[in-house]
Design brief:
This protein has no helices and seven strands. It is an all-beta fold. A hairpin with a 6-residue loop joins strand 4 and strand 5. It is globular and about 35 Å long.
């Protein structure tokens, strides 16, 4: 297990999608590469986790379109 990196964002924080977020296979009922959340969409962090192998934080974000998606720091920005 890698050393944990400090999370840049916190639970409950409002964030914006920094890029188009597409299905990477996490949504099995949705075709691969389908747009899930467009660039600039708002959301709220509902959980903060850690990738054990790398120590990188991962965020579970509920976006305004109702999608709840796991994202990395580089995929979101603070509002």
């Amino acid at each position: 297990m890698a050393e944990a990196k400090e999370a840049k964002f916190q639970w409950g924080q409002r964030v914006t999608a920094a890029d188009n977020l597409v299905n990477d296979g996490s949504f099995p009922d949705v075709p691969m590469d389908t747009l899930l959340v467009p660039l600039g969409s708002s959301g709220e962090i509902v959980n903060v986790g850690l990738i054990e192998e790398t120590g990188d934080p991962v965020y579970l974000v509920e976006f305004t379109n109702g999608k709840v998606i796991g994202v990395f720091e580089e995929e979101i920005t603070a509002e």
